[in-house]
Amino acid sequence: MPEPEFDQPADDAGESADDSTVESSVDWSALPEPLRVRLAELGADALGEMAKVDVPQHLRPVAKFAPTKRARLGGAQVVAGLRDSANFRTAVVEWLRKNRPSTLEVTSPDPVTAAAAAVLTGDEVALHYVELVTRRVGDATLRAERDAAVVRAERLESELERLRSERSQLDGAAERVRADAEVELERLRKRLREQGVKLREAKDAAEAAAAEVHKIQERTADEVKRLSAERDRERERAETERGKAQRAIADAEVARQSAREARQADEVRLALLVDTLDGAVTGLRRELALGEGAGPRPADLVRGASASQGVVGRVEDPAALDRLLALPVVHLVVDGYNVTKTGYPELSLSDQRDRLVHQLAVLAARTGAEVTLVFDGAGVVAVPAAAPRGVRVLFSDPGVLADDVIRALVTAEPEGRPVVVVTSDRAVADSVRRRGAHPVPSAVLLARLGRV
User: Where is region (Disordered) located (predicted)?
Assistant: First the structure.
């Protein structure tokens, strides 16, 4: 290592000052990094073995670090203590003189060691050593930057050479591609010229075909118009004939339906009349004991008195209703809502209907009577599709009262057939009584249904 580039002070050049008391004009904030690291290492080594009184307050936590970590973790605090505390700096110098005297030699061949010794001892050459270390650090930095720049330039030169080689190769490939493209372009141009000739020929053929197609379309359109007109005339004739046939079929069907309904009504009335007559004859035979050889009794021949003719009256108890329902081919007609609103008005109308229908089905099964249940159709959203076996359920049409339907049912029955009408409506009861039916209050039927 060369000597510093300034003269060493002679022993007799001036007064000999104590190293520990000489202050230098060194700017501690501008110390080069290698010198700061060396000062931190020296201060950290001495810090571990110093008396506590010589250690500044802010360095006492650093003194507790492990020796290997003290300079690395607390180096900045150690350098600051050396700068700010003359006592601490003096204690460090004393420790170094005792334990590592070589580190305090200002004449050391290592500029960093010599600069650290000069700064610690306050030697007047400290500033020159600091400048020397700073200049060498700058030179080392410049050399490193120069070496890095040289390496980078060499790398860039190598990359440039590679790029030039690749460009040469690409130029060759591009030239080959250009030649191939020119050959292909010429081939395509030739093929395009050939296709142009064929296209013109095809266009001429297409125009000729289009003209022919236009002529065919015109002829076809005329033929279609003629056939459409003829088809429309045939369709009108067919529709007329079909309408006549449908009207004739409908009229014939209506006539057949009317005849069938009339015949069925007549057959039903005749059957009911025959059943009624048969029941009446049987009852008369039983009452008169015909066929048993018995003639009139003496009481039957008494003059001056006659038997009652059997006036139709109201039925007031379930037993009387049972006697009526035991008559042959009896027809029980029930005023639906009159019964349900008397017996269970708390239910909805739908539930009222369902309950009464099922109760009458059981009654019909036990008595064998024909049962017709009539409801007022006003306000009924959905009419049931089917009723239980043995019960006919009717809903009056819009504008027709259920009372009128009941009167019509009674009127439609043949003379002599027993008809029982269940209603608490006095007007209905009186009108059906005049027609020969037996009116029964709704409460009587409900009492009878309570035993079903």
Answer: 1-28, 224-244
